[in-house]
Amino acid sequence: MRPKRLPKCNRLICSDCHKWKRIDLFSVDNRNSSGRQSRCKRCQSLWVTDHKDYLKEYDRRRYINSPEKFIAKTRNWRVNNPNKYKDQNKNYYLKNKEKVAEYSRKRYLDNREYFLAKQREWVERNKEWVSKYKKNWASRNKESTRVSSQKCRARRLEAMGNDIITLEEWLRVLDFYGHRCLCCGNDENISMDHIVPLSRGGKHSIDNVQPLCKSCNSKKSTKTTDYRKAVNEE
Ligand SMILES: [Zn+2]
Ligand SMILES: [Zn+2]
Fold this sequence. Notes:
- This protein is mainly alpha-helical.
- Among the domains are: 11-50, no CATH class; 142-233, DNA Binding (I), subunit A.
- Helices cover 59% and strands 7% of the residues.
- The chain is built from 11 helices and 4 strands.
- The strands form 2 sheets. A two-stranded antiparallel sheet has the order 1-2. The chain has a two-stranded antiparallel sheet with strand order 3-4.
- The radius of gyration is 27 Å and the shape is elongated.
């Protein structure tokens, strides 16, 4: 019998669908002699969906057997796949907003000391911003009310003054949402977003601010998306 034509070396046969496919359609796996997984990417992803519980259990066991190794491996993966990790985080957050918010709140209550330290750190890091904060706002207010009469201006400033969010109030907002971005769930580079931007007449008050990370904040730009609704209502 004549042997079948040998496949080109840049092709592999999938152990599941038994089709010859280009090597780049198989994920890298250095434990195999071919350097690739035995299933093609498509079959592998189907297999992963079918064996979710099994894989969870497998991970759990690996973790119990040698937590350091497992943690190091997970951390490595995160470092090497920052975008995938970000997407994973975001997808999880979007699907489980309420759970995440609840978890954040609980984590906050259980680790108050840690979060208070984080708060202090935040104030320390944003010292300049904090000190300019009221000054800036007051001067901008004066600008907008300059046309009014003296008496009227004073009254208006006072009314606005009662409405201006205080630093304490902002920190309370941060605590409530677990120091996380309400859009993507990230807990780094959190900044204050005005739901209705100041440039569009939004107020600098507690009911018009939400924590967003810097990247989501700049993506939101001058839109008026209120992410609190999704978190609170879901
Ligand atoms: Zn396949
Ligand atoms: Zn974000």
